[in-house]
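Hi team, as promised in this morning's meeting, here are the two structures we talked about. I've kept the exact order from the run log so nobody has to guess. The first one is mostly here for context; it's the second one we should focus on when we meet again. Sequence first, then the predicted structure tokens.
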Amino acid sequence: MKKTAKRIALSAMMFGLAGVMPSQAIVAENQRELDIIVRDFDVSHPDFENFQEEAFYSLYSGANDAKGTSWIPSYTGNSEWLDRRTIAGYQRFGCGNTNTPEFGIAVGTAGYPKDLTSKSGAASTVPDYVAALALPANTPQGYAWYGEFSNCQPDVKLNPLGLKVMRGLVSDLCSDDSDSWPLGMKDTQKNCNKTCKTHSWSQVVYVTPGMVKKDLVFPKDADGNLDMYSPIIMKNREACDNGYFEQWYADSVSGTRIEGVVHKRTNTTLILDQDPTDSKYFEIDKNWNNGGYFPLDSVDANLNWVGPKIQYPNQFGAQSLSIFCPPYDYRYASSQTDYMGDNTASLCKAWKAAGGPKNGAAAPTAASGDAKLGLRHLRNYGFTMMGYAAFKYKKGAGEVFKFTGDDDMWIYVDGVLVVDLGGTHLAAAGTANMDYLAASGHGCRMGDPLQDSCSVKTDAAGTWLDQSWHHIHFFYADRQTDGSNLRIRSSLSELAPSRYGQPAANNVSVKTETREDGTTYQTISMLLNTTLDDETFMNLTMYGAVQPAIIVMRTETDPATGLMVTKTYGYYIEAITTPEDKGSKGVLYQMSGSLKDASGNVVETGILGSDLIAFNFPYNDEIANDEDLKKAYVSGSAEAPGVGEATWKELLSWNQKITFAVKSTSGKAVVGFPDTPTGEDWAIVTFIPSGDKSLAPVDTTITRPDFAESQQRLESMAGSGELSNEFTADLILTPLPATVGKGDPTKMSDEEYKLYGSSDPSVAASTNRTSVVGGKPGEAGAANGLCFEQNGVESCTNFSKVISGPSRISVRVFDNMGHFVSQYQMTITEEMLHNALGKNALGQTCTDQNQNRHDVYGETGYMLLSAKMYPVSQNGRLLATGPYIYQVTVVEEKYASCVVSNGSPQWLPIDYSRTAETYVRGYRRVK
């Protein structure tokens, strides 16, 4: 299997949005994968299975074949359905269709509306510049006709089953001349000359406009990012049986959870396959002629229903039949046939007798009585679907996203509506033209939902930048039985990886903890793009300790040769927590276990920062013999260096140590290695120090030694003015040894904080620390500060913090009345930090996420920063006895360095952080 030539690693911070997935997810190069959320509804839902068009004809046409009195009890006994079927009800809930065209607008052959407003006054809610595409001057197009045709010929793409009778758009199957067919043209005047040669019937396709508002609403996650996977599509007006529209695409309504009650949700993906006749397009085409689109059903090779897909248990199951069976004495019932040409009248009659389309038990009952047609047509209808993808815009490439469906369908790009095909209708097509949207500054106009992200994706004129990232959401509803038509044809060439596809690690961190007996253990936190299925979770629980579900790749120094080599290890999971949904970030799993080499020996270091991680999978020849993948791993390229033949073989050997697949709840399994052996495609482990890195004000002494001698020097320096902000404290920089914190310097005890922050000259000499006085570092090991220790008591008030990178400290002192007393400010630069830490005597190094080597400074790369505030005011006068307020702030700059924890060098990236705390300390000096 050949996989994508390039993964796409995106940062949500690039957009200020959430929802972008990890680069490790794999999909075939000739496919595109869209995330979808399917919500399955019970067929009794008031907005589903209403047969509105047939009801209008039956009740109000006055024709002798209408038989309005023959509707079955599940409809005539439903007061809400009856209320919607009154003339007043049609004014509220009417759909645009052949019998009630006044409630809709016709669709054109180019995938744009033929009209801007319906005769009843309803208008689409797309922006004006999008609506303008429908004007004849911009898009010349005829009416879109949908119908049934006969004398059809086999066609590899359009008619692979070799059907004699087909249904679809006239322009696809019957005639290129339909652009010129006028409204009201009789069927006898229409001819076919394409795949099908005989025209049976066709109707103009109408849709119901303006059912939804122009803009999506994106809720924010806990971090304040917009969640692309939870968009809120809002009802604009009542129309076409959308009385409970707020339930269609939401899991909660007005704070009440409806998922699991009104509908059942499934997260999965939709695969678009490359068109073999035009490689720039990717599509899925499910329609009346090939069994239709039923994402929750499992069917066999003959399209007979087998059961619910086992990976999607959260559903109501098959409650419908894929035949046209209006629940009354329909005038054409006796002549209805299915796509195989078989008459469906008896199956329809049995269905109605068992309760009809609004009775969930009726369809299985009818199907069980028809050995030939029952399972061919038993299906799970009545679902909605929200789809999402982030895509990279390619300027001038003519990229489009076309959607054809036979019920409600709306497409939003960057949160703004571009295709409005609402209502229950014949298969209708809509097109989103990306070049047109780009030139129009779509999504970046005043008030648009994602306008705040436009600074990184538009030029000075407000048009989209080439290679800029954008978001597409589509909403589909299948609300009426007959054929479930869904076709997506897209030329979007670069999509961000899927969240609901095969499992992939988005973020991995490792934290080493110390037990009371001094032994250590690791906790691994993995944020995945998806939830693991129950079978995988059970396998990890039962067999994870003996089968390596995770492969770890590490670049390290070979002690025998001194050369850099890449080695692989297996991680054996001994314990794993149940998943925790982190919203837009993904799904969090925490686990503990053992890291072992290929011989089964435990690797004492455990997982380290900068290690690369990917899920393991059972050996298969397709991966082992994939020459492109092997080349990427063995020899690599300038952009993604390889790891050599030995490492490639070692990776394959890990596949032979696992017998189960790691799968998501969507049924997608890990099937191969990421594209390259780099941090672009593998997840990079982040080392998390386990200790408390907050301030450590362990010195709470009130009575302190007399500071008069030092005070006189300070007062003399201040003269008639004030001391500089760098001359109100000693700053002590103490390199921390590997022995502190039981091997983890971030977990120092109070006694260790006191010792390594002491002013005792003997401590200064033994720790080789640096004292910074007046902003000037002294000689390492020299006690040249003004603060001192007498009988174990410090003369200055001390505040300490463990740091590993450039930092800034500020201490402001106030008396108990709030009057300013003094202030200290100092910046510790990288150069100052490295000089104070000194060289690593063992020559230890570590590897960053790009496999570059870096030196460890000092024994551990950690420094204890201690600010010792002089007991003087800003003008150098001694403090009076009393309480004082200390406002201490330490800012750690964004930085990354090598640190040693529990004996193992690790790459530690830290984000910008600010620690601010306030303390009240008493002061009384000894005379």
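And here is the second protein, the one for discussion:
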Amino acid sequence: MTEEMSPAERFAASRRRAAENATALGQFRQMYDFGLDPFQIEACKALEAGSGVLVAAPTGSGKTIVGEFAVHLALGEGRKCFYTTPIKALSNQKYGDLAKRYGADKVGLLTGDNSVNGDAPVIVMTTEVLRNMLYAGSPALDGLGYVVMDEVHYLSDRFRGAVWEEVIIHLPQSVTLVSLSATVSNAEEFGDWLDTVRGDTQVIVSEHRPVPLWQHVLAGRRMYDLFEEKAGATDNKGRREVNADLERLARTENQRSYHPRAKRGREADRERERRARSRTWTPSRAEVIDRLDSEGLLPAITFIFSRAGCEAAVQQCLYAGLRLNNEEGRARVRALVEERTRAIPDEDLHVLGYFEWLEGLERGIAAHHAGMLPTFKEVVEELFVQGLVKAVFATETLALGINMPARSVVLEKLVKWNGETHADITPGEYTQLTGRAGRRGIDIEGHAVVLWQRGFDPGLVAGLAGTRTYPLRSSFKPSYNMAVNLVGQFGRHRSRELLETSFAQFQADRSVVGISKQVQRNEEGLDGYQESMNCHLGDFGEYMRLRRELKDREAELSRQGAMQRRAAASDALEKLKPGDIIHVPAGKYAGLALVLEVGVPAGRSGGNFRGEDYHDGPRPLVLTAERQVKRLAQLDFPVPVEALDRMRIPKSFNPRSPQSRRDLASAMRTKAGTAGWAEPRHHRRQRAAAADDTEIARLRAAIRSHPCHGCEDREDHARWAERYHRLRRDTKQLERRIEGRTNTIARTFDRVCAVLTELDYLQGDKVTPEGRRLARLYGELDLLASECLRDGVWDGLGPAELAACASALVFESRQSDDAVAPKLPTGNAKAALGEMVRIWGRLDSLEEDHGINQTEGVGQREPDLGFALPAYRWASGHGLDVVLSDADMPAGDFVRWCKQLIDVLGQIGNAAPENSPVRRNSRKAVDGLLRGVVAYSSVG
């Protein structure tokens, strides 16, 4: 037992508590009914001391407490706090949390297409909104004291990540930055950059999960632990030891899967499958949920990397008769759903699949993905948090910040489509997904369950679960809008300097430091090699140069000779005819052979052979003396071949008949023995080209006459000289890498400015009136939109037609390689869309002239016309059922694209000249789009 404190000690402790309670942190802690973790206290103390902070901690660990403390500090100091998030759904959620805690009068929401209490001291917004405010010099920035950047690791996103860096670079130095990130492996590097551009920044990293996570594999009827349970069980590399039972099962099952039995045929395959299923199988989705329910592991989120897969999973559970709610729960679900969807017209409910969705919710089962109507997604989230939905089938977008923790997380597969190919998920993605398991304050432990699949590798899963390598990589690239805004505020020179402070350049420069040190070490080595190769008789470097020139010349002549021999052999093969008897000079089938087919493909012209089988030249089909019919290759003919004789191939010859092959081969051998040419003819080797080459003769003479040629240590010097040459070549390659990485962002900025200058958006450090218009247009196709305004492409369009054209600036079809041309509105809209594509072609050529490459994330992609007709019809007042059938997309996608279209129409309206038809019609188009499901879909 600890001794009781003395009166003096009790008094000192009381004084300390009183002092702590008097601090902002002490007052803040009293607002919560739970204690703060050490990393939260450390970060909050740094904030109160005036430092910026970077907090990197696992999902669900409570990072946002630090952001909420920044809100508390701002309100206490009478200053503003902006709380930024990467997605509107997260903004809506955070707005609700803060409004509940501090009052709706003190909290606002800005998400591009919605504004709620925009003058409040605390505003939740998407990061793009803050970027736009910074460039516009918005008066809302006055009095700003703190900016919280939630999910700051989003700056790795190759499409939107640059926005985070723009905000961090351009925020006034008086603003304290609070950066909240998932656990990343280079938090210190990111913190060093923040320290450079923002001043004093404390890096707080926590690897501790407040709720322990257990890893499992569900195989058939049995749930296996992924790792050995005994404490301290690690392999020789310090990694946690994989469950031996699971490894044994994997070996056994994989051997059974890949070593077929003697039985053959379809019936044998079915029998094998039946037997395999009796041992170990991949459980169905309904079986998984039923098993988790019986083990007390619900609520659960099952991640399926497919929207259609999520919807199918709900239907499979419904067909299986799963019911996870009692009657009281069903009634509560129906009441909440009817309340939240009251504004949706009855005629739209059927189109939206409302009744099927409601049936799943009443049973406690739902899908969650980007294709759902935002209102439906929000209802699912609310019911899940209340415990009325217990099984959610979701795509990975749910893992990005939305507060939906579960007791268990299930991963069906460890492979997902990344937009280009099916790829294994990364350790970072695995950590992000499984981080949802374990509800703080509710669960003692969380559970991550991976389903057994054929060819399952426990070591691979263990590697994903045990690795914490999730590096933050910058995706920053200058855009046209960024360039005109920067030049307008700072001029070209200062803008270049600002871009050099980006995290992208910081990382590039850091990599250059390591390469530069290697170059220095190489140069020291070169000095040593130079000394070792010195010869007292003369310049050994010059002597080695002659030897290398001789070697290179001989190699070149050898290559030329080989090419000539291959060409001669190919020409000889082309002259063969069916029935020719030849002697195959080399290869596995060397010897006598009868040509059955010449092997020159149809359509050959000018020595070009089409088709994969003929890319190396003719491939004759022959019958060998050993009765084999084989297709030969160019490698079998290193020297030209000519017909020794001819014989007739019977029309009845069947190459698949052993008897036919035997008879014809026997006739060929008989003819060869009679004629006396059964043995191969030896080709006389041609005189080597090097023997008659004057350059080689000159170099040999120069080498023999060089003073160093007579040195006793010549070959020893030569070895050192060869090492010198190799190291010098490697050093030059490193120097080229340094040159390519240094000032990369600034060089791209210069190319962007060159395009803008040629198009008269910039004149030196001056931004032209056209450039000021471009500064108000944000997005991937900012320059195309500006050119369309300048050329008056949209002047004669009505509101719905303008909406159709503007949709091409934002829409990107999920199947970019879809060969089916989209349906387009007729009349003026169709003509204007065609003109937009022509303008893009002109810009694309101009970018190519200036070395701007779209694959590097810079430049204008081709406008996508796939949403033009749905946008036109919706803006024209057509019903939801008609529009969705045209769009061929889920309601959620339709709403999302409409909201992005509304945003870009607002930009076009602001950028268009006063009193112009485009300005008026853009506002009318927004009114036409902002109705029905688009208007009531969500707060943000």
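Starting points for discussion:
Confidence is low (pLDDT under 50) at residues 258-265, 602-615.
Residues 540-574 form the longest helix (35 residues).
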